[in-house]
Design brief:
alpha+beta, two-stranded antiparallel ribbon, 12 helices, 367 residues
């Protein structure tokens, strides 16, 4: 028996709403709700946010200048030292055990499992270190710098010519109690101040061997070991970032007398920050391209960027070094169309492209 198709309908059409129609209606409802939530957020204009920028008396500010400028590759980074600088708390989070190390080892609920996992992790880490199964590598650079509005100008140490511009974003949420609307450029002396300042950049990976190590364990049907190896490679990459930052602070001069424990390093009890592109203080992942160019990262380390700006190998970290005593981490948060258009103009990019990369931060519906 053949089916009868009514005009404008479908086989078996009962006259009710189609599944496609229901999905579209639900999507439209969610879109309206999102727009209403965005509209409900009272935001500052970009001009107002800039008027509430951090106020710094640069004439009396204590600015640290490096003992030397340039780019240095460290290949390999000291694997055994990195192993001693691991922050173990995120290791447990990767296994969906939530808590802080070492307290998690005594947790009433997950303590027993955490201790088993930690023992396995230590044994696997010992094998990686003793066997030299990973070869971590890093590169960093230091240059003179000056802020120009919301951007940071990176300068050639010999000629003073511009090498690059680090484009930054400013918070636009209303502030109270005299708190400023932060932007990373606030932590670099303005060109108009006449004060010399500096910026750094880095990229590290725990090793190109990490994927091959995990693959070899999977080939042996050891999925647990493969996941463990990947988790440890991630931890070693973060430890490499911590080790290199300490090394750079000493070269920069302001960290020469540091005597911090591993726990103090993990809790960032030092001066300066290392914000990473794609993270809250600088949410634009494409800023990695500027960093890659300044450091010639691919030639120095073999690290590459994918079309989505993910780093390869996956167990890698990159970012900027800012040495100001005032420097702190902060979330840019939601931004308005006026800042997106201004940022796009400064970068020489179409607004639509900037909106695509910054979509999680938009406080409006793109046209």
């Amino acid at each position: 028996m053949s089916e009868t198709i009514t005009p404008g309908g479908a086989a078996g059409d009962t006259g009710g709403p189609s599944s496609d129609g229901l999905v579209h209606a639900e999507q439209e409802r969610l879109r309206r709700e999102l727009q209403q939530r965005r509209s409900a957020r009272a935001m500052l204009s970009l001009a107002e946010a800039r008027a509430n920028a951090a106020k710094v008396d640069w004439s009396s500010a204590e600015i640290a200048l490096p003992e030397r400028y340039g780019v240095e590759v460290i290949d390999p980074l000291p694997l055994a030292e990195l192993a001693e600088m691991i922050d173990w708390s995120p290791f447990f989070h990767a296994w969906e055990l939530h808590g802080r190390y070492p307290a998690i080892l005594e947790d009433r609920v997950v303590g027993e499992r955490a201790r088993e996992l930690f023992d396995d992790g230590r044994r696997a880490l010992d094998r990686i270190v003793s066997g030299g199964l990973l070869r971590p590598v890093g590169v960093y650079g230091l240059w003179p710098a000056a802020s120009v509005g919301d951007d940071i100008e990176v300068l050639d140490p010999a000629s003073g010519d511009r090498l690059a511009m680090v484009h930054c974003l400013r918070q636009q949420m209303p502030k109270t109690d005299g708190r400023p609307n932060w932007c990373l450029a606030d932590f670099i002396a303005p060109a108009s101040s006449g004060c010399a300042d500096a910026i750094g950049a880095f990229a590290v990976t725990s090793g190109h061997e990490a994927q091959a190590l995990a693959d070899s364990l999977r080939a042996e049907l050891d999925d647990y070991g493969a996941i463990m190896a990947a988790a440890l490679a991630d931890r070693l990459a973060e430890a490499a970032a911590e080790w290199l930052h300490r090394h750079v602070r000493r070269i920069w001069g302001y960290g020469a007398d540091e005597r911090l424990s591993v726990d103090e390093l993990i809790h960032e009890r030092y001066r300066g920050i290392r914000p990473a592109p794609g993270y809250p203080a600088c949410p634009d992942h494409t800023a990695k391209q500027t960093l890659w160019s300044l450091l010639d990262v691919e030639k120095a380390t073999g690290m590459t960027l994918t079309e989505s700006m993910a780093m390869s190998p996956a167990s890698s970290v990159s970012g900027w070094y800012l040495a100001s005593k005032q420097a702190r981490y902060f979330p840019v948060g939601r931004i308005e169309r006026d800042q997106v258009e201004d940022y796009a103009a400064r970068r020489g990019l179409p607004v639509a492209e900037v909106e695509r990369w910054l979509s999680p931060n938009l406080n409006y519906e793109p046209r």
